[in-house]
Design brief:
Elements: H1 3-13, H2 20-39, H3 44-56, E1 62-64, E2 69-71, H4 73-85, H5 101-109, H6 120-140, H7 142-146, H8 151-168, H9 172-185, H10 197-218, H11 233-237, H12 240-246, H13 257-261, H14 274-286, E3 294-301, H15 324-332, H16 349-354, E4 358-362, E5 379-385, E6 390-395, H17 408-416, H18 421-432, H19 436-442
Parallel strand pairs: 3-4
Antiparallel strand pairs: 1-2, 3-5, 5-6
Pfam families: MmgE_PrpD_C (PF19305), MmgE_PrpD_N (PF03972)
Protein name: 2-methylcitrate dehydratase
GO molecular function, one term: lyase activity
C-alpha cells in the first residue's frame, strides 16, 4: 500500500484516548495555546488581518481568540493560527522542528460549528495531529529545514487535515484526497522569520487544512497518493526513502505528544535561543557585572544548532526573537526576557552596538547529552570580562523543554498572566471536562 493510504488508514484506526498521559498532555497543550493567543490579542498584525478579512465578508461562525468576534471557518483558522504563533510563545516539538499546536488547534476549532461537540474525541484528534506532524518532521529529513523551508507551514497542513479527518471520522477516500489537497498547498519560508509573515504561515497552514477537508468531502477531484513517487511530497520536499522507513514505523505504540513531548515555552522567542538564555542568566547569578565590563561573549552551538536564529544584528525586538545576540544583550543589560522586550519597537542603539561583542561558534567534537532537547543540541555561553576573568555555562535541556518541563500549574499561571483569573479558570474547566464547545466559548 502507498504511504498516503497507509497514513490515512493509521490515522482513522488509531485510538490515542487509551493513553492517559497523552490526554493530559493534550489538555496542557490547549491551555498553553490559549495563553499564547491571549498574550498576542493586542498584536498589530491581528488587527490588520481582521480588517482585511472583514472586507471580504463571510458567515460569522467561529470565534477569533480574545477578539470578541467571529469569522468564517477558514478565516478563523487562519486568524487563530496567527494569534497562537504571533509572539513565538507557543509550544514546539523537536521532531517537528516547528510549532504543531498553532496549526492543529485552530484547524480543529474551526470544525465546532452549530453547537456540535466532539467531547474527548477532540483531544484524540489533537493527539493525532501532533503525532502526524512529528512523524512528517522525522520523515522529511534535516535538509528540508536547512534549505530554508519553515516546517510549521510545510508540514502543518497535512498534519492538521489528518487531525480533522480523525475528528470527523471521514472515509479513507476523503482523507487521502484531503492529504493530497493539503500537500499541494503546503508552503512556508524561514526567510520570513522575524516578521508578521512568520506566524501567518502557521495560520495559512491551518486554513489550508480546513479548506482541503472541505474540498475532499465535497467530492472535488484530486490525486489520492500525493506523498508517494518521484513527483510526490516527500520527493519534492525531502527524502522519500527516509519517509518509507520513518513515517509509519511503530505507529500507535507510543504518542509523540508524550515522548519526546511538547515543549511549553518559558520565553517568548525562538526555542533555539532558550539554551543560551538559561546559560547567560545562570552566569549572571554567579557574579554581577555591567555591560561595559564584558569584553566578549562566545556562544557555541553544534553545527546547524542556530539555523533558526537568522538575525545577528536585529533592528527591532520582533526580529530579536530570532537573535541569540539580542537575547544575551537583554540579560546583560539587566532587562527581563519577557513579552515587552520582543515587540516592534526599535532596539536602543547602545544595545545594538554592544551586540557586536557576541560571536557564534560551532563545535562538532563535544559529546551531546543523551537527553538533550532537541536531540544532539547544546549551547555553551562563555564570557570574557575586561579584567581577564572567564566564565562558562553549558545548557543541554532548557527550562520548559521535556526533561525540564513546565507543570500544569505553571501553564495555568502562564494563562492567568495574560487574561483574567476568572477566564483562565473557565478555560481550565472546559478543558478538564473535555467540553470543546465550552472551550470555544471562553476563548472569545
Amino acid at each position: 500500500m502507498e504511504l498516503t493510504k497507509q497514513l490515512a488508514e493509521a490515522v482513522l484506526s488509531a485510538d490515542p484516548l487509551q493513553d492517559e498521559r497523552a490526554i493530559q498532555m493534550a489538555r496542557n497543550g490547549l491551555l498553553d495555546a490559549a495563553a499564547s493567543a491571549f498574550a498576542a490579542k493586542e498584536d498589530e498584525g491581528i488587527q490588520q488581518l481582521m480588517q482585511l478579512i472583514e472586507q471580504e465578508g463571510g458567515a460569522a461562525q467561529i470565534p477569533v481568540i480574545g477578539q470578541g468576534k467571529k469569522m468564517s471557518r477558514q478565516s478563523a483558522a487562519l486568524l487563530n493560527g496567527y494569534l497562537i504563533h504571533a509572539l513565538d510563545y507557543d509550544d514546539v516539538h523537536s521532531d517537528v522542528r516547528g510549532h504543531p499546536s498553532a496549526v492543529i488547534i485552530p484547524a480543529l476549532l474551526s470544525q465546532l460549528t452549530e453547537g456540535k461537540g466532539y467531547g474527548e474525541r477532540f483531544l484524540g484528534a489533537y493527539i493525532i495531529g501532533v503525532e502526524v506532524m512529528a512523524r512528517l518532521g522525522e520523515s522529511i529529513g534535516k535538509a528540508h529545514y536547512e534549505r530554508g523551508w519553515h516546517n510549521t507551514g510545510t508540514l502543518g497542513a497535512i498534519a492538521a487535515v489528518c487531525a480533522i479527518g480523525y475528528l470527523k471520522q471521514v472515509s479513507m477516500e476523503e482523507l487521502t484526497k484531503a492529504i493530497g489537497f493539503a500537500g499541494a498547498q503546503s508552503s512556508g519560508m524561514r526567510k520570513q522569520f522575524g516578521s508578521d509573515m512568520k506566524p501567518l504561515q502557521a495560520g495559512l497552514a491551518a486554513k489550508t487544512a480546513v479548506w482541503s477537508m472541505d474540498l475532499a468531502c465535497s467530492g472535488f477531484g484530486g490525486n489520492d497518493s500525493v506523498l508517494d513517487g518521484a513527483l510526490g511530497f516527500f520527493s519534492l520536499y525531502g527524502d522519500l526513502e527516509l519517509a518509507k522507513s520513518r513515517l509509519l514505523e511503530g505507529y500507535g505504540s507510543t504518542w509523540r505528544i508524550v515522548s519526546p513531548g511538547l515543549w511549553f515555552k518559558v520565553y517568548p522567542f525562538c526555542s533555539a535561543a532558550h539554551h543560551a538564555a538559561d546559560a547567560i542568566q545562570s552566569l549572571m547569578k554567579e557574579r554581577s557585572f555591567l555591560p561595559e565590563q564584558v569584553k566578549q561573549v562566545d556562544v557555541i552551538f553544534p553545527p546547524g544548532g542556530d539555523a533558526a536564529l537568522i538575525e545577528r544584528t536585529p533592528l527591532t525586538g520582533e526580529a530579536g526573537r530570532f537573535s541569540v545576540e539580542y537575547v544575551i544583550a537583554l540579560a546583560v543589560f539587566g532587562q527581563t526576557l519577557t513579552l515587552d522586550a520582543f515587540t516592534k519597537k526599535n532596539i536602543p542603539s547602545n544595545m545594538r552596538t554592544w551586540m557586536k561583542r557576541v560571536s557564534r561558534g560551532y563545535d562538532q567534537t563535544t559529546e551531546p547529552h543523551p537527553n538533550a532537547v532537541p536531540k544532539g543540541r547544546f549551547t555553551i555561553v562563555k564570557l570574557t570580562l575586561t579584567d581577564g576573568t572567564t566564565m562558562s555555562k553549558r545548557v543541554d535541556i532548557p527550562q520548559g523543554a521535556p526533561g525540564c518541563a513546565l507543570s500544569k500549574e505553571d501553564i495555568i499561571q502562564k494563562l492567568s498572566s495574560v487574561t483574567s483569573a476568572s477566564q483562565a479558570q473557565q478555560i481550565l474547566q472546559a478543558v478538564e471536562e473535555e467540553n470543546d464547545t465550552a472551550y470555544l466559548k471562553w476563548l472569545t
